[in-house]
Amino acid sequence: MAQLWGGRFTKETDKLVYAFNASIGFDKRLLTQDIEGSIVHARMLGNQGILTQKETEEITGGLVSILEDVEHGKLVIDESFEDIHSFVEAVLTERIGEAGKKLHTGRSRNDQVALDMRLYTRYQVQETDLLLKRLLEVLIRIMEENLETYMPGFTHLQKAQPLTLAHHMGAYFEMFWRDRLRMRDILERMNYCPLGAGALAGTTYPLDREYTAGELGFAGPTLNSMDSVSDRDYLLEFLSALSIVMMHLSRFSEEIILWNSDEYRFIEMDDAYSTGSSIMPQKKNPDIAELVRGKTGRVYGDLMALLTVMKGLPLAYNKDMQEDKEAAFDAFDTVKDCILLFTGMLDTIKFRKDRMAQSAMKGFTNATDAADYLVGKGVPFREAHGIVGRLVLYCIEKNTSIDALPLSEMQAISDKFEEDIYDAVSLKTCVDKRLTIGAPGREAMEKVIAVYKEYLK
Ligand code: ARG
Fold first, then answer.
1. Is the CB of 113 under 6 A from ligand 1?
2. How does pLDDT run across 70-92, given as a tens digit for each residue?
3. Residue positions annotated with a catalytic role
4. Is the pTM of this model over 0.85?
């Protein structure tokens, strides 16, 4: 057992208690951030004359050597230590002697872990953002290639009005764009440095918190030491933003699963992103999309876990807060994997334009346009709605579609129908006439895509 305290204890910690209390099994992934923070802390202590120049150099040199040795496999993190902070300090002292024992001057593990977690989370927010950017790039490519790929748009999962694949993908572009904006907001709000808050009430040493904050890339030091060691809001914000990313990915996955089904056959999934069945030889399953949909529940669970851990905690630090890590790490890893895999899957999907167009032609997706046509001929909309309703009923009885009906049969329902109805209800016209900004018409879409590309630049 290797721990940083013990002076006031007369007995060894019970072995089970020690193991229950220890966090090195998961906080070992904060090694880089822990060392980065300690180096800056030591330099600051040196600048302030709290450590000598020699001590500062020994400490920073020792810390760099520890990081390098772990990275090169020459030093293995010893999990018999209580946490990563104890491990680093022990190895440092073993390597450089007395000076190592001075690193923790003016610092507590409470502000140390608050810093490590913030640095690590900041990095994860940036990584997630980059993965989202890549996803947006794939979406833009699909949009540009499918400005005239007609497909049915659905409400209630019933065919509603025709649109294009570009427009459908554009809806997801908007969602993941907002997800990136949320990442940016979170980064901005969280980017203040808790180091120097001490255990909860600051310290009596003349620490230069502006210096450490600046060196570690923060906008400034945090302004209340109790809040600094107690705050996990930024993690909750990130976990909620990640939950929203997963909700978006999950809806998209659901559509891909539907589109991949034999009933739709809108898409062909790449073999590299599908799996087979051990018993049914014909199967090609969309497992990646299903797993992304499934893992959404897990990320929501991580958010709920942390919200619940935090809800009753009095100020300031409580050991409960150690429970932030496994939930957060699980969410970070899960969401990054999901975005990465989903992007690869999406990028390799083949869209069956023929199937999509055929589907758009069935299901009376042009009924609204037929009513609008009558409005253009002077029929009030409510009346036009009734006429087209009867036309649809007639088509259903005859098992045909509006555009395939002879003009004479249409005219039997309303004499306002003329030869130009066929052009008015063609898929191309139905889509291309929708030109208000945000609509699927080609010109409207081209303007929107130009905005997206400008943003991605
Ligand atoms: N492992 C602890 C955590 O993750 C580090 C802080 C320990 N502080 C303490 N006062 N016991 O929260």
1. yes
2. 999 999 999 999 999 999 999 99
3. 156, 277
4. yes
